[in-house]
Specification:
By secondary structure, the protein is an alpha/beta fold. Among the domains are: about 200 residues, Rossmann fold, CATH 3.40.50.300; about 100 residues, Helicase, Ruva Protein, domain 3, CATH 1.10.8. Helix content is about 50%, strand content about 10%. The chain is built from 19 helices and 13 strands. It has a 5-stranded parallel β-sheet with strand order 2-7-10-1-11, with helices on both faces. A two-stranded antiparallel sheet has the order 3-4. It has a two-stranded antiparallel sheet with strand order 5-6. Strand 8 and strand 9 form a beta hairpin. Helix 16 runs parallel beside helix 18. The longest helix has about 40 residues. It is extended and about 100 Å long. The two termini are about 55 Å apart.
Length: about 500
């Protein structure tokens, strides 16, 4: 495996080149910068952002520590507690986009105890390895992509202009029975230089033919670059990707065991079959580039790097952890999806060795971040051993009306900006005034108080109801500049808000 005494380099920019605001590797960012990036999309919840930023930055600090103490520094696992719709899952989604390290988000409610039908908790480590493999392979492919494109272009030119047939081999003894002139014509000629170097003499006709072919090839190359041959049909030879009968041999979900893929093993034993396909040139280019990338990327090196990243930089976000809290003291039967899952989580979070198809992975230094609403259960309802594995607890507060106003205006992916982009696709302009945004926030907060509090997700229901008629009539809408101010929002929504039955089913 790759050495861990130096920090891993940041991933290279993808091809085509990334934009100027391409983020550096997450662990190399100071905590304040991580919080600033999260602030671009998440309003409030400063305590949760700070805890996550410190925990992530500690991964990089550990890699800089002396080797004798590095293995003793354990990650500070976090459990985030707060009602639904306040930003717990959104923090995970944004971390996943920022991270250059392997990141996986799983739902705790999908797991069952080992031995029962369903997914066992070890599968999250296997999925994290798959994420890491894809991440490292993409980085390696980005590095060699120009070379792969160049090789694919040469193969395309060979398809468009097949190479000249090789000259016939020198005649044997029986061929020498012909006339002397014919035999002399078949014998190759050699030129000896003044230094004694011997080189075959190419006939002038053959030299002219090669020069003409070279000029034709360069013309085709220029046409390729100009995109003039994209719809031309070419015939290529491709390998068959899979065998339908082998797909049926895959183990069902949750029954992977040690994750040995018997289908892949058998495919490796069966000789690869090739078939010829006639495709458009742009499709042939994609196929050939993929083949060249597979040749240029060393998968053994990819696997070693990926496993190292998982063990030293991996992050697993376990959502809905409150759904696996059991009823303490009640033993009415095997609770295979609650306390059973908690018992299986213990060794994974504490540190154990998990077998994957790529090798063994130690989970000692994987960072685990858990989150749950805990509406019914409490964090103390988790078994004590699991509580001890998550020493850092962060509580996220409920969102107020003022928070809703900020959520609709400040983030880069605010709902008002999303709907404005959708309306702009039809050639219209959608605008929300300040008092219109305040009115939407007031109605969402009011509905949350009267009904179930679902946090910022209530804004989606209010906005969908508000814009339903506009979005339906938009192609033929008479106005191309649509403005929603406070009175317009009240006019459209007040009847629903005041009618308890309507509010219950619509908002």
């Amino acid at each position: 495996m790759a050495k861990t005494d130096t920090p891993l380099p940041p991933p290279t920019a993808p091809i085509p080149p990334a934009s100027e605001d391409q983020m550096p590797w997450l662990e190399e960012m100071p905590p304040k910068k991580i919080v600033a990036e999260l602030d671009r999309y998440i309003v409030g919840q400063e305590a949760a952002k700070k805890a996550v930023a410190i925990a992530v930055r500690n991964r990089w600090r550990r890699s800089q520590a002396p080797e004798e103490i590095r293995d003793e520094i354990m990650p500070n696992n976090i459990i985030m507690i707060g009602p639904t719709g306040v930003g717990k899952t959104e923090i995970a989604r944004r971390l996943a986009r920022l991270a250059g390290a392997p990141f996986l988000k799983v739902e705790a409610s999908k797991f069952t105890e080992v031995g029962y039908v369903g997914r066992d908790v070890e599968s999250m480590v296997r999925e994290l390895v798959d994420v890491s493999i894809n991440m490292v392979r993409s980085e390696r492919e980005d590095d060699v992509y120009p070379t792969a494109e160049q090789r694919a272009e040469e193969r395309l030119l060979d398809l468009l202009l097949p190479p000249l047939p090789s000259p016939p081999s020198s005649a044997g003894p029986t061929a020498g029975a012909g006339s002397g002139e014919q035999g002399a014509a078949q014998r190759p000629l050699f030129v000896v230089s003044s230094k004694g170097d011997v080189q075959p003499k190419v006939p002038e006709a053959e030299t002219e033919q090669q020069e003409r072919r070279r000029r034709t090839r360069e013309k085709l190359r220029q046409q390729l670059k100009d995109g003039q041959l994209e719809e031309r049909d070419v015939e290529i030879e491709v390998q068959q990707q899979s065998f339908p009968m082998l797909e049926m041999m895959q183990p069902p979900q949750g029954m992977e065991g040690t994750d040995i893929n018997f289908g892949e093993m058998i495919q490796d034993l069966i000789p690869k079959k090739k078939k010829r396909r006639t495709v458009h040139l742009h499709e042939a280019r994609r196929i050939l580039v993929d083949e060249e990338l597979k040749k240029l990327v060393d998968m053994d090196d990819v696997v070693n790097e990926a496993l190292d990243r998982v063990e030293n930089h991996g992050v697993i976000f376990i959502d809905e952890i409150d759904k696996i809290t059991g009823s303490r003291g009640q033993t009415t039967g095997p609770d295979v999806s609650r306390e059973g899952v908690q018992r299986d989580l213990l060794p994974i979070v504490e540190g154990s060795t998990v077998q994957t198809r790529y090798g063994y992975v130690r989970t000692d230094h994987i960072l685990f971040i858990a989150a749950g609403a805990f509406h019914i259960a409490k964090p103390s309802d988790l078994i004590p051993e699991l509580q001890g594995r998550f020493p850092i607890r962060v509580e996220l507060g409920s969102l107020s009306e003022a928070d809703f106003v900020r959520i609709m205006t400040e983030p880069e992916n605010a709902l008002t900006k999303q709907y404005a982009a959708l309306v702009a696709a039809e050639g219209a302009k959608l605008e929300f005034t300040a008092d219109g945004v305040k009115e939407i926030a007031r109605i969402a907060a009011k509905v949350n108080e009267r009904m179930e509090n679902i946090g910022a997700r209530r804004l989606h229901t209010v906005m969908t109801t508000l814009l339903e008629e506009v979005m339906f009539e938009l192609p033929d809408y008479p106005l191309k500049h649509i403005v929603f101010d406070g009175p317009a929002v009240r006019e459209r929504l007040m009847r629903i808000v005041e009618d308890e039955d309507l509010r219950k089913y619509i908002l």
